[in-house]
């Protein structure tokens, strides 16, 4: 029996089950957002920006739990997916919510400013600067959720650390932007059902990208703990 569990086919099957379950759980957490997107596709004239903001709020904690679950799958290979996901969701709910609300509010402010300057003063080019700030914020958020899934760090330090690695790991940052662009293209070209699996695919890729970052942070923390006076 042990030989079966050690076979690659078991590991692959285990990954696939975990991938599907994680996708379903994220979809359950964001059912309001999914329904809003479906209704918007059916009836675009009824789109409401404030309603979108409200429906986006649950996305942060669920993404944090997804990062934690996928990270544990990669590290430990064999886990109880349901238990890990929901335990991570509850344990890190507040930290992920604070991180996400900070990012979501800033993105909303930038988006409103972008629309204003793009419509009223396009010749100034201010809307381009705001768009770049939005991209930086989004990409930094990708690092922040990944790091927050492994370490307990204060929000201010987490944001600074995310910006630091976003710049230091610039090739990885470019790869992440490319992955997001491809995901967006696929969403536009395929069924909305595919939307359910996009977060798991993206988080899995990003978790592999961030393995060296995790090691670097762990080594720094261990070094600081062993040399508190240095």
Question: What does it look like?
Answer:
The protein has one domain. Helices cover 82% and strands 0% of the residues. It has helices at residues 2-6, 8-29, 31-42, 49-56, 59-76, 81-91, 93-120, 126-148, 155-168, 170-189, 198-209, 211-226. The longest helix is centred in the middle third of the chain and has 28 residues, at 93-120. The protein is globular. 23% of the residues are buried.
Residue windows where pLDDT falls under 50 for at least 5 positions? 1-5
Binned strand content: under 5%
Helix amount? over 70%
Distance between the termini: 51 Å
The secondary-structure class comes to: mainly alpha
What is the overall shape? globular
Number of helices: 12
Describe the largest sheet: none
Q: What number of domains?
A: 1
Task: Specify Rg, calculated over alpha carbons.
Answer: 19 Å
Average pLDDT, all residues: 85
Total count of strands: 0
Q: What order do the SSEs take from the amino end to the carboxyl end, as H and E?
A: HHHHHHHHHHHH
Keywords: Membrane, Transmembrane, Transmembrane helix
Pfam families: DUF624 (PF04854)
Protein name: DUF624 domain-containing protein
InterPro entries: DUF624
């Amino acid at each position: 029996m042990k030989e079966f569990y050690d076979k690659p086919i078991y590991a692959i099957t285990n990954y696939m089950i975990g991938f599907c379950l994680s996708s379903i759980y994220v979809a359950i957490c964001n059912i309001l957002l999914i329904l809003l997107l479906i209704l918007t596709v059916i009836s675009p004239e009824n789109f409401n920006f404030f309603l979108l903001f409200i429906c986006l709020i649950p996305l942060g904690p669920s993404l944090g739990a997804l990062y934690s679950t996928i990270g544990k799958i990669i590290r430990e290979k064999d886990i109880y997916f349901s238990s890990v996901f929901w335990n991570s969701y509850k344990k890190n709910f507040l930290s992920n919510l604070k991180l996400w609300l900070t990012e979501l509010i800033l993105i909303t402010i930038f988006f409103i400013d972008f629309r204003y300057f793009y419509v009223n003063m396009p010749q100034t080019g201010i809307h381009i600067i705001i768009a770049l700030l939005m991209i930086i914020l989004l990409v930094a958020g990708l690092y922040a959720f990944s790091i927050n899934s492994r370490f307990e760090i204060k929000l201010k330090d987490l944001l600074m650390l995310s910006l630091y690695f976003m710049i230091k790991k610039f090739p990885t940052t470019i790869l992440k932007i490319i992955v997001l662009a491809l995901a967006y293209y696929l969403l536009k070209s395929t069924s909305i059902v595919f939307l359910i699996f996009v977060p798991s695919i993206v988080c899995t890729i990003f978790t592999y990208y961030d393995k060296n970052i995790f090691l670097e942070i762990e080594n720094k923390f261990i070094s600081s703990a062993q040399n508190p006076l240095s």
